[in-house]
Amino acid sequence: MNIVKDKKSQHIVDYIKEFARKNSLFVMAYGTGCGAIEIPPTMTSRYDAERFGIRGAATPRQADVLLITGYLAVKTLKRVIRVYEQMQDPKYIIAFGSCTINGGMYFDSYNTINALDRYVPVDVYINGCMPRPEAVIEGFVALQEKIQRGDADNGKKYQENIDWYRENQMKVIKNWNMPDYNW
Ligand code: SF4
Predict the structure, then answer these.
(1) How many domains does the chain have?
(2) 139 pocket-lining for ligand 1 (C-beta < 6 Å)
(3) Domain range enclosing 49
(4) Which pTM does this prediction carry?
(5) Does 130 contact ligand 1 (Cβ within 6 A)?
(6) Which of 11, 28, 68, 171 could form a disulfide with 63 if both were Cys (CB 3.0 to 4.6 A apart)?
């Protein structure tokens, strides 16, 4: 009987924890591509993303969400990895624009990467070229639902599969000079 009661209380604690977490998302917006132009209207009075508990973070260590807004050159990928690894767990990535999914119009470029989730774990993709603020907010809502379900644990999966990610990262980043982080 006590076990049943404990399970129920644990469930309630988890629910409250995820509820608080999903409604307080501090975002590190990394304007890697042209889609970055949609961030100011998303965050300011017209679309007012703060209604959903979404607001900017000053540094990676204060951020929950890394928002990647378009194509990534190999050089930029290196910085994205560095930013992501400085963020505290639980942490999430939202990638928007076709370029993050399959390279978009740069799919055969010599210097951009195609599938972002080969290098860092992406929680939500928002497709389009470029997605409007409504789509960006919808992407955040999809992430919030994932957090509430308890399915958003990519930070942990990144650590568990770090060898696979490192191998992929080092295939494209030839000048690999990165600090090691203590998880
Ligand atoms: S998806 Fe379109 S808008 Fe976004 S970075 Fe690529 S080319 Fe630019």
Answers:
(1) 1
(2) no
(3) 2-172
(4) 0.89
(5) yes
(6) 28
